[in-house]
Design goal:
It is a single chain. The protein is of the alpha+beta class. The chain has one domain: Creatinase/methionine aminopeptidase superfamily (Creatine Amidinohydrolase). The protein contains 5 helices and 15 strands. Strands 8-7-9-14-15 form a 5-stranded antiparallel β-sheet. Helix 1 packs across helix 2. It binds 2-amino-4-trifluoromethylsulfanyl-butyric acid and cobalt (II) ion. Cobalt (II) ion (CO) binds next to loops.
């Protein structure tokens, strides 16, 4: 069942998405070698609760934490833990909130300090591929057009692995609504996109093989070859000429540029 939203509901969803962006902006300020993903989890939990919202991942199908913190070869659904982050780590923070009954769900990959140029390129290309997908989120296009655009930019043009097992999704009063939004596919296939359909588009792109496995905890998804993976996610509303992006990377990017602990050549 596909649920489109009224203009008013889209406005409420923008507030939820923006609360996630604001929280990730605070993460961009605090993240540095030495802090742990459990510190980040605790901070996010308090920040979200202080803004009259609840955390949507906690206990979702039994998920045992507030956020997902996926470091290096962890693709998604990493458990926050007490290991100190270190220079050179790539850390995806994925956060979901419910504000006034509406979900916001997005993710951003942070780079700690100097990292190898090939990893910087993976981060850059993955973020670019998200925007290539978003460009296709317009009325009368099809879901397959989004995945095709992501896959072209990452797999075909740059030889990266596009994770198949996990996909983007519709978003609304539920965290996961129809349709599924794969990061691969064929042009002109899949559901036709309609105005005010809200999608979470989330490329998960591996430096090496696209193959992944799930650890014995039942959640942590890792690359099979142990190479790094990057994940960016935006909440997007389908419109006629240009998709409306509800979440906001610009405030996160400004904060990461100002964070001297993230002084990589990337920024
Ligand atoms: N952004 C992820 C997703 O849409 C996060 C889900 S984590 C979970 O699937 F714990 F809530 F499952
Ligand atoms: Co999502």
């Amino acid at each position: 069942m596909v649920y489109t939203k009224s203009e008013e509901q889209v406005g409420l969803m923008k507030e939820a998405a923006l609360l996630v962006s604001k929280t990730l902006t605070e993460v961009a300020k605090m993240i540095k070698p030495g802090i742990t993903t459990l510190d980040i989890d605790q901070f996010c939990m308090e920040f979200v609760k202080d803004h009259q919202a609840t955390l949507s991942f906690y206990n979702y199908h039994g998920y045992p934490h507030n956020i997902c913190a996926s470091v290096n070869d962890v693709v998604v659904h990493g458990f926050p833990n007490k290991t100190a982050l270190k220079e050179g780590d790539l850390v995806s923070i994925d956060l979901g909130v419910i504000l006034n009954g509406w979900h916001g769900d997005h993710a951003y990959t942070f780079i700690l300090g100097e990292v190898a140029p090939e990893l910087l390129k993976l981060v850059k290309v993955t973020k670019e591929s998200l925007y290539k997908g978003i460009e296709k989120a317009i009325v009368n296009n099809r879901v397959g057009d989004i995945g095709f655009a992501v896959q072209e930019h990452t797999e075909k043009k740059n030889g990266y692995g596009v994770v198949r097992e996990l996909v983007g999704h519709g978003l609304g009063t539920e965290l996961h609504e129809d349709p599924q939004v794969p990061n691969y596919g064929r042009r002109g296939t899949g559901m036709k996109l309609v105005e005010n359909l809200v999608l979470a588009i989330e490329p998960m792109i591996n430096l090496g093989t696209h193959k992944v496995f799930t650890e014995e905890d039942g959640w942590t998804v890792k690359t099979q070859d142990g190479k790094v993976s990057v994940h960016f996610e935006h909440d997007v509303c389908v419109k006629k000429n240009e998709a409306l992006i509800l979440s906001d990377f610009s405030i996160i990017e400004a904060a990461e540029k100002a964070n001297i602990n993230l002084n990589s050549s990337y920024y």
